[in-house]
Amino acid sequence: MSSTAGQTYLDQFPAEAKVIKAAFWSSFMALAIGGLLGLVQALHRTDVLRFIDSADYYTVLTAHGVLLAITFTIFFLVGIFTWAVTTSLDRGVVDIRFTWAWYIMMVVGTILVGVSILGGVVDAIPTYADVLFTFYAPLQAHPAFYVGLVLFVVGSWLAGADWFRTWWAWRKENPDERIPLPTFMALTTTLFWYLCTLGVALSILVFLLPWSLGIVDSVNPLLTRTLFWYFGHAVVYFWLMPAYMMWYIMLPKLSGGKLFSDPLARVVFVLFLLLSTPVGIHHQYLDPGIAEGYKFIAMTNTMFLLLPSLLTAFTVVASMEHGARQRGGTGYLGWLKALPWRDPVFTGMALAGLMFAAAGFSGMINAGMNINYLVHNTWWVVGHFHLTVGTAVALTFMAAAYWFIPQVTGKELWSRRLALGQVLVWFVGMTFMSNAMHRSGLFGMPRRTAEPQYQGFDFEPAVGTVGEINAQVALGAVLLTVALAMFLLNMVMTSFNDDSDSLPANTYAGTLSGPEDSPAVLDNLKLWTAIAVVLVIVGYTLPLASIVDSGGLFGPDIGGFQLAIETDPALVLESVREVMP
Ligand code: HAS
Ligand code: CU
């Protein structure tokens, strides 16, 4: 823990605090725009209020997905990790200019991506990128979109290099010390980020970008899809790990106690490094062209991957219980009452954790090969990820911001009551929305469409009606937007707040069982990285080889679908015939 106790982060690391503040604000801007577009979609799909053209739905959905799943999450992550590394090593970054350089690179990437998508609805901008946040072929975007993504990802790579450099510098001065837990978490996460982003880098640089530039005529869609999901599952843990970090090192302290076990926390992060990547095929159970056996291997790995989250549930709840008992809590469940429910930082994170327990269940259902056939490509999946990234991650980040923004600005939070109300409204709104989405998926309501109600076809829910489900989604979406506005208002007002009398010190939770109880091998990052690489080779070599073997490296002659999002069925058929004669 930091030796300069009593001070805020801004007092300790004024230069780093500036970059972190900038990263947080970039994240909030993405949250504001992306969140608003979410409301537009929810009201459109449920037919409650329509003010966009259905043909523009994909543009809006792409912006919503990219801004929230990629920009909001990752900007917040780089802020938190920079805080975690510098605070726990008690030293600044090696060269602050390098830190600004990667931040600016990520901003430039984001602007390019954003403008490319905007071209879909603004005639004056000659770009298009209605490709959704998964951007795999045959959907094709303007080259600027891919270039923007590359800049953003390379920026995040450099951020990782920055944390490693800082750690290396610290290790020279402290050769015999264990890696402090927050730094350990940031480094293991960075390592699997490097491993998984290789897939998406390959997909963009070798296939999608040359294809969009017209350098190659066609691609193998299954290959680019598989490379995307090679990255696309691990990225969900990239979003989750900073939230887990908060649950491990903040929740115990806020609860009034200590982290139950440092060794268990290290085991969890090592397991994520090992298993986050060789599971991506669980997003492709329904893809023809991948043999069942490979899907089965991905399913088995996914089931093992539940373990670190189940361990997390145990460790974090045990730490909260320890805290509650320190505060005088007693009884089998009575200790829950002794938790600091009036603290928005605590309550936001605890509610996020509670929702993640439900999200874990829907994840397990997704992961089962046979039961996935029932829910794949339905609104169920959208319900699932609004509980995971949309709550476990987003709500934790918002709650964390109530603590972090005062730390990096030296200004007190404007309103704790508004903040407490905000996390509750988010929780209630998401309960309505995601529950209804899950239910609708069970009777086949499709995702990713502006017109889910297919003409001449009636959906039949087992319980309730389609109208009632739609009403719940719309109500949930409105509540979420209200919560978003409450959050942003509090953030803006905090930056104009002149009060700085009772700022909390920059500390995090101590441990009941500390690093001295952790086997030293857990800190052997080279060993875990090597095993992770082997698992990736085992999980992916054969499926990739067989995809290339049957579909060709650059595929059969399949052109791209560019702007043509047509809603008239006859015209859709015509455009499909054009590209696939
Ligand atoms: Fe997922 C689809 C399987 C976790 C995100 N997932 C998605 C998509 C997204 C996403 C975005 O196997 C859609 C992608 C697309 O556009 O197509 N997912 C899983 C599994 C897990 C899982 C097995 N997903 C996540 C996380 C995400 C995320 C985390 C983002 C952050 N998911 C799938 C599958 C699909 C899928 C298939 C494909 C579906 C299809 O067909 O398309 C697991 O990691 C979940 C493990 C979680 C647990 C819960 C542990 C509970 C904890 C809570 C502790 C409580 C606390 C609070 C701290 C086992 C840790 C206590 C409070 C008190 C008051 C005491
Ligand atoms: Cu996944």
Automatic annotation (TrEMBL):
The keyword Transmembrane helix applies. This is B(O/a)3-type cytochrome-c oxidase subunit 1. The chain crosses the membrane at residues 22-43, 63-86, 98-125, 145-164, 184-208, 228-251, 263-281, 293-317, 345-365, 385-405, 417-437, 469-489, 527-548. Residues 27-515 form the Cytochrome oxidase subunit I profile domain. It comes from the Archaea. It comes from Natrinema altunense. Keywords: Membrane, Transmembrane, Transmembrane helix. One of its GO terms (cellular component) is membrane.
